[in-house]
Amino acid sequence: MAKVENHIIERFETQGLGSVQKDDLSQLLKICHDNLDHVDDELISRAFRLCYISHEGENRASGEPFYLHPLEVAKIVASDLAIDDESVAAALLHDTVEDTSVTLNDIQNLFGEIVAHIIDGVTKIAGVFESRDTKQAETFMKMLLSMAEDIRVVLIKFADRLHNMRTIHHLPREKQLKIATETMELYAPLAHRFGLFKVKNEFEDLCFKVMDPNSYKFIARKLREKKESRESFIREFMQPIKKELSEQNFKFEIKGRPKHIYSIFKKMQRQQKPFEEIYDLFAIRVILEEPHKKEDCWRVYSIITDWYTPIPQRFRDFISVPKANGYQSLHTTVITQKGRKVEVQIRTRRMDVIAEKGLAAHWKYKEGSDGTNPLDKFIHWVRDVLDNPRPDAATEFVKDFQLNLYQDEIYVFTPDGELKTLPQGASCIDFAFEIHSEIGERAMAAKVNGKMVPLRQKLEVGDQVEIITGNKINLNPDWINDVVTHKAKSRVRQFIKKKEREVADEGREIWQKRASRGKVKISEQELTRVAHKLNFDSAQELFYKIGSGAFDVNDLFKAVQQIKSMGRFEGDQKEERNEKLTEDELQQKFISTARSGSDTGKDLLINGEVSNVKYTYANCCNPIPGDEVIGFISRNGDVKIHRSNCKNAHHLIQTDSERIIDVKWARTIGQQFFGAIKVIGEDRVGLVNDLTDVLSKSMKTNMKSINVSSDSGMFEGILTVYVNDLDHLEKIIDRIKKVPGIKNVMRYE
Ligand code: MN
């Protein structure tokens, strides 16, 4: 085979750098020296030079020269993640093997085995960014595998994604949504598990900005408006503490920052509260400089609580018992003299570095580890997840996994006093599976703190747990509702599937006997159709119901006879179509009541123009003009319009990205839409009347429906109203807020 001449490598031997690139390089080297223990200037300079030469002539979507992307990624690796100089070199070259004629072999010859190995790993995790049809779950598995091999691979991937997210506004909207969704569902939870809180928060905010730009802008604006009063409050709060700490010769830094935008948004949604009641929840952090030790954190705690009253239930000591990702800190919430709650975190500088850089900070302590290093523990945990048989559906696996990534942890003990970490909400069954899968399968009962308890009992911090096992497998399908860990869930699910198969096999035997007695012969295909006719998902489900006694085999026999006598399953298709038509009719009915006009294709621009494509609005999220929207081409060619922050839309983006279509609201819209509003307030006579009046008289709109529940003097109602657009809806919300007795009004999702 003829070897392709490699001009890039030829040029690498001879070509120097221009003055702009020389500046770029010296800036990068400075960041390296500021953050890393050891820097091989020569290695990084050569990597930078190859990076520049190999990408010469290429541009990014923004129009900038391409090499600026790997350069920025390398800067993130050097500063935010601070791993080592080989990772910085690998970051500079992370796109060369994939995108240029430089081969992995070239890299190995020029930069050695380790750099080549890392780049190989990064190249293999082909994310959606590079190839559109990569399924998310698959990417995820690859990430996990590479993590278990070399954690630096994943850290570079984080940096790569972070820079791509920071520059995402240059891409077309469909692409933005797809990347943001993947980042939110994959990268953010993983960064969280890594303890990379800064990176995770930035991921979330950047994604949120893409998925729900209006809410993002709203919160960002509000935060700017409140900046001054927030800062003066922090100054006032800290002033006596600062004075006292200085008098006692502490060396320290104090930071007070609001929560990140996405977490404020989630809180608003979860608690159904407006921004004003959430925004001032922020944490103040006291960081003790070297050579302060952990015991000094308690001294600071005591100084703070001399001044402000602590809430005892909110005290958490992550110094004595660090989180699995290595996080250490003292947490407390105190109340000021004016009754405001403030969360205070106290930690040393070293703890703070670990809190911001997470497991990456442990990279350098890798040598001489005895299994207690959080990084080793994490890798062990990844291997463990991969070793356990996965459920059939890869997506289910990802879901469980994400759940485990976000969960808070509790600490419990074995009878020998060994510490085990479990997610919050874990039961004795989870604990049993955590010890060993065989213990889980044979578990009969449990003793918590010496007392017999049912297996499904949830565990609390500090519980000492003993599992009592029998000789036989005692797994119970009902356990699926009592377990939260991935390990336990996948075992129980497996068991359920096996049980169902057994029961279905019995059902099939019962049918076969009945069929031969009645001298009926029927093919597997025909059976499936009969099953569908009888409203089962599959023949398997039908047999399961027969096997478990929930469906009479004689009814199946009758159905088969009837269909056979009508002649070879004819009419099936027709009836099925009828069913579908009814569904369509229902949909039409919904549309005509929900929207007063007809959908003639005038209120939306599809791919930038008014078109004759038929479209309908998704029932799940009810978009109205002003909402960010996207369209999905349905199987019959119609377009379905969703709000871009709709959960179902996210799912579609992941599974059927090629069906996304760009839609925008046309400027003039004549027709009305309907929006739902949630109202909370004090219940009183005439309240509903007042609401109706406000709508019809001052807002000139009509209410389609109202659902109300009132309980111990409180009123909660969902109003559905006709609106022109988002602006109109917001005006209505503002107006309803002024109705006497109303405490809270918000758009109902
Ligand atoms: Mn890249």
Radius of gyration: 31 Å
Secondary structure tally, helices: 29
Q: Share of helix among residues?
A: 40-55%
Query: What's the CATH architecture name of the largest domain?
Result: Orthogonal Bundle
Mean pLDDT: 80
Coarse structural class: alpha+beta
Kindly estimate the percentage of residues that lie in beta strands according to DSSP: 5-15%
CATH superfamily of the largest domain: Hypothetical protein af1432
What is the assembly state of the chains in this entry? single chain
Low-confidence stretches: 127-134, 365-369, 389-394, 570-601
Class of the largest domain in CATH?
A: Mainly Alpha
Q: How is the main sheet built?
A: 6 strands, mixed
Can you summarize this structure?
The strands form six sheets. Strands 1, 2, 3, 4, 5 and 6 form a six-stranded mixed beta sheet that branches. This protein has a four-stranded mixed beta sheet with strand order 13-15-14-16, with helices on one face.
